[in-house]
Write a structure and sequence with these properties.
Blueprint (H helix, E strand, L loop, with lengths): L8 E4 L5 E4 L5 H7 L1 H12 L8 H9 L2 E2 L4 E6 L6 E3 L13 E3 L11 E11 L7 E10 L6 E5 L3 E3 L2 E4 L8 E7 L16 E6 L1 E8 L3 H5 L9 H20 L3 E5 L4 E5 L10 E5 L5 H13 L7 E6 L1 H7 L9 E8 L2 E7 L4 E6 L1 H5 L6 E4 L4 E14 L11 E12 L6 E6 L6
Parallel strand pairs: 3-23, 17-25, 18-21
Antiparallel strand pairs: 1-2, 4-13, 5-12, 6-9, 7-8, 7-12, 8-9, 10-11, 14-24, 15-16, 18-22, 19-20, 20-21, 22-25, 23-24
Helix pairs in contact: 1-2
Length: 429
């Protein structure tokens, strides 16, 4: 490898590592041999700067970022196959055929050899022909004319004919269950989860610090020592990033002054279609609280532990009613360098934290449930620093450092996250 100005050289090791020969280790050599080393050190210091003010950026930075090859990030949001549909038209019990054709609101989710549970309709236990139990159907085929050809696994009897599909009213819920294959079956109906391709833009965030000792200290230390001025600049930068990561609008426009394209990242607030609303200023007691917990944790393939980032109004509202009977509030817990109030329920565990960004951005009564397992950060330009020679360019007699990051946040499994939105009370006439 090439020698540097101090005659030091980088030598490849026997197992893929890199060694410094004929000179000391400097930041220039470190950046050349391991570009991510100093960036990781910077990230490890940044997460300690007032983390409670920027919880979303804190969590994403703590977990690390995926590299983005360009400012435009294409990613795939994967959803689960729907588990239920409803009967479109009523089915009337037939006394002469065990087979029946039924039409559902979404025939596409059902395949031949699958079983269907009809929880609200009674069948009978095949063992004794009398004991009631929820009806189970078996899909024989999907006729070209539409609908599903089914038979009853535990059908009813009529006119001495057993195993008939009983009458089922329209709008009855049909739950998709497991497949049932024959002994000689080798193949089954194909199933591919086709993720939806989505896009977000990395936004270039910058902060400039003058009269900085950062680069001088970085030459002597592997870590990144922050002066008070640098800390204030990075904190302000992270606060702006937090607002963009939450409520930004994905777009690209051309700046007529700079004659270049500017990328704006899209916030995660608008990336999920999942929403729960409540009356502003109050919850409808434990019943509504349980409804919120149920919607946040069920039917979305998410984790059993999620984070509620909330404005001050929502935090105050949740604190007004007694949730002891439905949930257990524990002492504060620390995760990702953040202090949470842990709330445990039978649906899952919620880590609650107040976000001043929600208050600043006009969402003081709102909140967002985030599944950290499916929150991903993409970084085109990792958090890095660059020294500006303002003296040499004749601009100012100062040393300056620019801190830059080009990144965005995306939600995988969008349904695993949920907005909580306050609605105004309906005025009675």
């Amino acid at each position: 490898m090439e020698n540097t100005a101090n005659n030091a050289a980088l030598v490849a090791g026997t197992s893929g590592g890199t060694h410094v020969a004929s000179g000391p280790l400097t930041t220039e050599l470190a950046r050349e041999a391991s570009p991510s080393l100093l960036r990781s050190a910077i990230d490890s210091r940044v997460v300690r700067l007032r983390p409670m003010a920027t919880p979303v950026d804190q969590i994403s930075r703590w977990a690390g970022a995926r590299h983005a090859a360009s400012m435009e990030v294409d990613y795939y949001a994967v959803d689960t196959k729907p588990s239920e549909a409803r009967l479109k038209t009523s089915h009337v019990l037939s006394s002469d055929s065990r087979e029946a054709i039924i039409f559902t609101t979404d025939d596409r989710i059902f395949e031949p050899s699958e079983t269907i549970l009809v929880p609200s309709v009674e069948g009978v236990d095949p063992a004794d022909g009398e004991t009631p139990q929820p009806l189970v159907l078996y899909v024989i085929s999907k006729p070209d004319s539409g609908g599903l050809k089914v038979v009853a696994v535990n059908g009813v009897s009529r006119n001495k004919v057993d195993g008939l599909v009983p009458s089922i009213n329209a709008e009855t819920v049909l739950v998709r269950m497991g497949r049932a294959a024959g002994e000689l079956d080798v193949q089954t109906a194909q199933f591919e989860a086709l993720p939806q391709k989505m896009r977000n833009y990395c936004q270039i965030f910058k902060a400039q610090v003058e009269q900085s000792t950062l680069m001088r200290l970085a030459d002597k230390e592997v870590g990144w020592t922050l002066s008070d001025q640098e800390e204030a600049a990075v904190y302000d930068m992270r606060l702006g990033m937090e607002k963009s990561f939450l409520f930004g609008s994905r777009s690209r426009l051309n700046d007529p002054q700079k004659r270049t394209d500017i990328y704006f990242t899209g916030g995660i607030w608008n990336q999920t279609p999942h929403e729960f609303s409540y009356e502003r200023g109050k919850f409808g007691g434990n019943r509504e609280f349980l409804a919120m917990m149920r919607q946040a944790f069920t039917g979305n393939a998410g984790s059993s532990r999620k984070i509620l980032i909330a404005g001050s109004g929502l935090v105050e509202t949740l604190s007004r009613f007694d949730a002891v009977r439905v949930a257990a509030a524990k002492d504060a817990v620390t995760k990702w360098g953040l202090d949470f109030q842990e709330l445990c329920s039978k649906f899952g565990t919620l880590y609650i934290i107040h976000s001043e960004v929600f208050d600043i951005c006009g969402h003081e009564d709102d909140g967002m449930v985030i599944d950290p397992q499916y929150l991903t950060k993409y970084s085109h330009i990792p958090l890095s620093t660059q020294s500006l020679d303002l003296k040499g360019s004749g601009l100012r007699n100062t040393d300056a450092t620019v801190i830059t990051e080009a990144s965005c946040l995306v939600l995988r499994y969008p349904e695993a996250h949920m907005r909580i939105v306050a609605r105004n009370a309906v005025q009675s006439e």
